[in-house]
Amino acid sequence: MDKLYTFGKYLRNKFNKNIKKVPISIPGFTCPNIDGTVARGGCVFCENESFSPNFQKEKLTLNLNSKENPLLKKQLKALKKQFFDTVKIYNNIYKPESYLVYFQSFTNTYAPFETLKKLYDTALTFPDVIGLSIGTRTDSIEDKTLKYLKDLSKDYEIWIEYGIQTSNDKTLKRINRGHDFKNVKETIKKTKDLGLNVCGHLIFGLPEETQEDMLKSVEDTIDLGIDSIKFHPLYVTDNTLLAIEYKKGNFIPISEEDYIDTLVKAIKMLPSNISIQRMTAGTKNLLSPDWCRDKATQMSHIHKALKEAGIEL
Ligand code: SF4
């Protein structure tokens, strides 16, 4: 890639509109890697609060084996409130013309199908919503959910965002991911065979990974036929398994220099049809590394490095 192809550009080219993603966190949603179905404790870096401003403060438990969902009313209310609250803020800053509802926190295909259908359908009734982006794991999406999303994609812009993180099985085990890369390959193939849009999420700086490992993950991810990609540095936040290891001196976060060097090399590898949804991440709620505290500064360093590498912004 010689010219940066962002997801914003993809949306503008396709719809000729200013479109924003509205992040949503559904109360009662969880993850099979947290609730014991696959594992307990989650990925070593998981503290879902760091992913979303709409993170659930109230813990609820959803019985996945029951078609009845006593939480549904509360979930629909939360969906509506979060959407309209965020739209109000966006209207003052970005003045978007349309929205993608982004089911972001936890595993957003891990609930009874009837619940998912109701939530997705409701989100699509909100004003100026042109589609959905659904964050999930490759081991947690049923065929009937994929089929339903395929049907929705005839009328709406539908994206499925899979956490890949790395293609290295040793690392996947090390970070307690609960699935291997074979599972990623199989699910993404199935999703692509249905013609759905796929975004893959990768993390640079995972424990014991070299730059070679990280770029191999990029190569393997491109080979999956994804349509869009997100890059994220591994940072340490409190209340995670990684924080315990970091405090014991067992984990050293990636430096900003190494992260940006890897990122620029990764972007150069991307074919021109893969849009980029994220190049880094920042959080104030951080133990380490300090350079991840301020996303705006990171972005200016990244833009400078991309220009120096001959990538047009
Ligand atoms: S898959 Fe996501 S929600 Fe589940 S444990 Fe890992 S980071 Fe947390």
* CATH architectural type: 2-Layer Sandwich
Describe the largest sheet.
7 strands, parallel
Task: Count up the domains.
Answer: 1
- The tally of helices reads 10
Per DSSP E runs of 2 or more residues, the count of β-strands stands at 7
Bound molecules: iron/sulfur cluster
Q: What's the mean pLDDT score?
A: 93
Distance between the termini: 11 Å
Structural class: alpha/beta
Poorly predicted regions are 49-53
Q: Strand percentage, roughly? A: 15-25%
Cα-based radius of gyration, to the nearest Å:
19 Å
Order of helices and strands: HEHEHEHEHHEHEHHEH
Strand order of the largest sheet: 1-2-3-4-5-6-7
Q: Helix amount, in percent? A: 25-40%
Kindly identify the CATH topology. Transcription Regulator spoIIAA
Shape: globular
Identify the CATH class: Alpha Beta
Describe the structure.
- This protein is α/β, with parallel strands linked by helices and 313 residues long.
- It has one domain (7-308): Transcription Regulator spoIIAA.
- 38% of the residues lie in helices and 15% in strands.
- It contains ten helices and seven strands.
- A seven-stranded parallel beta sheet has the order 1-2-3-4-5-6-7, sandwiched between helices.
- α4 links the parallel β3 (129-136) and β4 (157-165).
- The protein binds iron/sulfur cluster (SF4).
- Residues 31, 33-34, 42-43, 46, 48, 106-107, 137, 163 line the site of iron/sulfur cluster.
